[in-house]
């Protein structure tokens, strides 16, 4: 059965077997910005589609996996990384029950300087000081640098995410904030509403110091443009264009934009030039 085969190569990319499929990801990331690193805790709601399997293979790259646990089965007995295929295989002591299950993973990752995955970049603040920020570029196959996943466009799921960041920084993702918790130690955790079902490469995070300008479209979508501190005026033209364009699309196609907000963020170091995250 093809579901039991190891990852297959497709034009140099490893595509994962269909023995397990994702339903939703719950992802909590704690940034250690000055250390160029982050800690991740991931819980995946999934479906095991076949009988008699003891392992799950996910895409993962430049991540250090510290623990994995399958609910009702126990911890992984082995965790095997394949750097060539950018995969990680979790093997368990007994077979996994067919049907819905929960896989939990703890790991650490690098805020790299390669402008892919979850990466760091620098900017000059209003005082002329060089500062660090973090942002993501996951298209086409770099979500795996941020969290273990099925990093293939057709393997869609929902995402509920949180970011622990310095208290003075702005944290953004695809969806609006659902809650902010101040830890009292100079950090806060920003939690976000669940996303619609979507591909891994569309997920986005941005953490840094920003000013912003905002407007609401005629159908109630909050549109914001985030700029470097002290330069919100540089976002006004983009804001006017975005509001006019979204209203025009809503009217022309008679299909409303499905998300409650739309953010545009000026990133100082961004190899792709621009990226849509919906």
Automatic annotation (TrEMBL):
It holds the Pfam family Peptidase_M1_N. Residues 237-278 form the Peptidase M1 membrane alanine aminopeptidase domain. SUPFAM superfamilies: Leukotriene A4 hydrolase N-terminal domain, Metalloproteases ('zincins'), catalytic domain. GO terms for cellular component: cytoplasm; extracellular space; membrane. GO terms for biological process: peptide catabolic process; proteolysis. Keywords: Aminopeptidase, Hydrolase, Metal-binding, Metalloprotease, Protease, Zinc. The keyword Phosphoprotein does not apply. Residues 22-202 form the Aminopeptidase N-like N-terminal domain. It comes from the Eukaryota. Its cofactor is Zn(2+). GO terms for molecular function: metalloaminopeptidase activity; peptide binding; zinc ion binding. Belongs to the peptidase M1 family. This is Aminopeptidase.
